[in-house]
Amino acid sequence: MFETMKPAPADKILALMAQFREDSRTNKVDLGVGVYKDKNGDTTVMRSIRAAEQRLFNDQTTKSYVGLQGDKEFCALMGDIVMGDAVPAGRLRVCQAPGGSGALSILAVMVNRARPGATIWLSDPSWPNHIPLLGGAGLNPQSYPYYDSATGLVLFDAMIETLGKAEAGDILLLHGCCHNPTGADLTIGQWQAISDLCNEKGLLPFVDFAYLGFGDGLQEDAAGLRLLAASVPEMVVAASCSKNFAVYRERVGAAMLVGANSEEADTAFSQLLSVTRSIYSMPPDHGAAIVRIALQDPELKADWMAELESMRTRMVGLRQDFAAALRKASNSSRFDFIANQKGMFSRLGLSPDQVGTLRNEHGIYMIGDSRINIAGLPGDGLDDLARAIVSVAS
Asked: Can 137 be counted among the known catalytic residues?
């Protein structure tokens, strides 16, 4: 059987990671991989997470299954962090998932059961794994304009114009905050316009919420999603703990759905749990239990929030300093948009050839579309980095 198969296309990000590891240059810079890094280039374990994990190690008495929904207290806590009081508890259901990608996958399969082959509208550009995840579930991906590479701003008028062609029952995928790969976020007024559009057209909002706390703060980053949740009858959300709790390898996420009423929410949730049973049966417990302990304990939660805020402000400072270094090197405002964008990512607007030149001649690694990880910027080497970028961008 296997002799009939062809090799799958290589994942570009994983291939870039391998290239970087094999590069022997001591001055190489990794701006490609999407994980938070501290000033030393390390992705460390957060203090509250380390303390919570030690507590779990000391107190856990069984490794028995926790059930299809997962850790129910974790689910409740995640619902509070993401939704606040935007929707009544009777309309909200939350299921633990293996990471944000797992949440995206099981929600997509569940939605496809409700409307097989439904069109799902994705921003152009979007996270590259959205299409294989959502398309693999049976949905039909289509794109809407989102990002103006010349200005670094959202093409909101073009976005709304294109989405005006959507039909009732279509699904609208939105990035909750810190848009990946551009860093260009919607304003609260634009969230309101999207809410109006969803209600007018009968669209189902599907929010990918992977970077809560990395943009403007925990409450501020959730404001648009909560506005939407309070306005529409139905909605699904894929939330990730990978970035804001730095538990990447633990694969911790939450799949959320909002129903028009409690009865419909229960019905949809039963289908969601049926999906999990058919794919992986029971969710992994360890990472979710760590996050639950960190959120349950007031001192650990306060420490988590403080450390998350320090991560956020560090990235804000790096954005501002990098934009200033690029302004100095280019003697122009071409890259000023970087300072105003949100979260871990921005696109520099370079061509694949220019990206290749940076990698080959300067040891600067980034994704082929020139997406960079802001947290990977070398705080003490921004001037050299800016000069190299300007040298190929001219």
From this structure: no
| Domain residue limits at 34 | 10-44+313-393
Number of domains in the chain: 2
Which tokens is 213 given? 């706390």
pTM of the predicted model, to two decimals? Answer: 0.94
Q: Active site residue: 243, 254, 304, 386, which one?
A: 243
State mean pLDDT over 34-49: 93
320-351: per-residue pLDDT in tens?
999 999 999 999 999 999 999 999 999 999 99
Which residue of the set 137, 210, 375, 386 is catalytic? 210
Neighbours of 141 (CB within 10 A): 17
Q: Do 255 and 107 form a contact (C-beta atoms < 8 A)?
A: yes
Q: What is the mean pLDDT of residues 8-36?
A: 87
Are residues 286 and 319 both part of a single domain?
no
pLDDT at position 17 is 84
Average pLDDT, the chain: 96
Record the tokens describing residue 246, joined without a space. 């730095």
Taking residues 362-390, report their average pLDDT.
94
**DSSP per-residue codes, 327-369:** HHHHTSSTTTHHHHS-TTEEE----HHHHHHHHHHH-EE--TT
Q: Quote the crossing angle between the two packed helices 47-59 and 298-330, to the nearest 10°.
A: 150
Which pLDDT belongs to residue 211? Answer: 97
Would you call 39 a catalytic residue per the annotation?
no
Ramachandran area for residue 316 (φ above 0: left; ψ -120 to 50: alpha; else beta) = alpha
Active site annotation includes 255: no
Residues 146 and 154 sit within 8 Å (Cβ to Cβ): yes
For 121-137, write each residue's pLDDT tens digit.
999 999 999 999 999 99
Q: Which residue among the candidates 185, 208, 221, 369 is catalytic per the annotation?
A: 208
| CATH code, domain with 31 | 3.90.1150.10
Q: Is 208 a residue of the active site?
A: yes
List the catalytic residue out of 30, 52, 127, 289: 127
pLDDT digits (tens, 9 = 90+) for 284-298: 999 999 999 999 999
